[in-house]
Amino acid sequence: MKSIFFKNFAMTAMLLAICFLLLSVSFIGIGRTYLIEDYRRDMMESTNEVAHAASAIARTSSMNDWSLSMIISSISGATGNHIFITDEQGVIITCSDKLPFCEHIGKQIPEDILEQLELTGTCEQFSNLDGLYPENRYLAARQITEEADGDLLGYCFITSPISNMLGTWTNYLTWSIIALSVVSLVSMLAVMVYTKRMARPLDEIAAASRKFARGDFSHRVRQTADTTDEMGTLIDSFNKMADSLGKAENRRSEFIANISHELRTPMTTISGFADGILDGTIPPEDERKYLISIRDETRRLSRLVKDMLEVSRMKSWAADESRRSVFDLTELILQTMLSFESRATKKNLDVDPQLPDSHLMVYADKDAITQVLYNLLDNAVKFAKPGTCLVVRLYKDFGKAYVSIKDYGETIPPDDLPFIFDRFHKSDRSRSLDKEGVGLGLYLVKAIINAHDEDIAVRSEDGMTEFVFTLTLADGVKQGREPA
Predict the structure, then answer these.
(1) Which residues is 140 bridged to in the sheet?
(2) Least enclosed by CB within 10 Å: which of 14, 101, 115, 305?
């Protein structure tokens, strides 16, 4: 699980780094373009201001007047750019450098730049102006014209070192890299903490699974306050699965213990009586009696095996939805009750069928439901006191058919009720009245009803025991209750 955690973290960190890298490259590229374009626009606006100032001064004086030199010197100091003005022939006449130190006065501007200025009125390019500067600089220039008649007076040039232009972008790039690095580091730490938190319950699930593989189903994964999302749902489902596995293991152990007990008793009896006959311990005149006992125990074993096979077969049938069909439950109950008529008469039982007048159609496996009715009626007849009433009731309620089978006799002990549907479970009243049963009848009933996604319940009090189970009506329409 640790390797999975580190793999997930490494993959998440790598994806995060790639996303941040792509975002950073795009962000920095866009920022560079924006900053350079903003710097270029500022330079062109400066050329416009200088050109307007030169045009205004030219109306009263010349463009090499000291006042114009002071203006462009101030603009140059504020922007860090170099500014100069030429006449119509491209000869520099005014410069932002102070006059004693200016080496640009009288220099000639290249013809190609002048031609472009004459053609378009403006010029933007990288150039050293034929050696005027020791390195290439960004150049922005425009014509200076009279505002009244538009006559050409000269040209205004503003140049800037490329380092100045990119200096702002370099600072921006530096701080962007620092910010992105901090964000990346914080994000990776957050991803690591979150991934570790998400992996912790997975570690517990893996540890619990290893214990389950060794047969220990007692371990449960802790449900913390921060695991209320999908991970919380997974933990809850895992713990429920563990509960089911634990109960299944307990039922398996109980089943093995019960089946061992049920098989051991008749086999011990058969073996003991057979050995007694063979070794002469049992007198010849008593052999018939013990052979009868061996026969009875053999038949008991046969019934046990038959019942176990019947349980397996009926459970398989009940789970097969292709066997289900629509049939009349009222008619099926009457037919099943007829098979107990002689036993009920022999026991002087008064049978009270409380069935609806109309047909009640349900959708289920008819053979499986017949087995359910047979087992419940068999129990009712078996445990009802002679001379009492056996009540079989059928009614429908909100899309379900309800079947109730009630007998009056010995009450099932309250401690036995939770286990009444378990395999091989026999209550005290069963042990005294049911000598042949092995405790699989009600287990089969429960299995069949559950396979139909229906419910069955039992209550036993004050000498009355009632079993009630449900089936889905064929029409599937919710209906109000119609008493029988």
Answers:
(1) 124, 158
(2) 101
Q: How far apart are CA 291 and CA 472, in angstroms?
A: 51
pLDDT in tens, 300-347: 777 777 766 666 666 666 667 788 899 999 999 999 998 888 899 999
Report how far residue 87's alpha carbon sits from residue 93's, in angstroms, rounded to the nearest whole number. Answer: 7
Query: Can you name the CATH fold of 320-472?
Result: Heat Shock Protein 90 (3.30.565)
Residue ranges of the chain with per-residue pLDDT less than 50: 1-5, 428-435, 477-484
Residue with tokens 């924006």: 34
Find out whether 138 and 40 touch, Cβ atoms under 8 Å.
Answer: yes
For domain 2-167, is the CATH number 3.30.450.20?
yes
Residue extents of the structural domains in the chain: 2-167, 220-319, 320-472
**What would be the CATH architecture of the domain defined by 220-319?**
Orthogonal Bundle (1.10)
Q: How many residues does the chain have?
A: 484
Interhelix angle 162-213/2-58, nearest 10 degrees: 160
Give the span between the Cα atoms of 427 and 1, in whole angstroms.
Answer: 49
Q: What angle do CA 265, 266, 269 make, to 5 degrees?
A: 90
> In the structure, how many helices (H) and strands (E) does the chain have?
11, 12
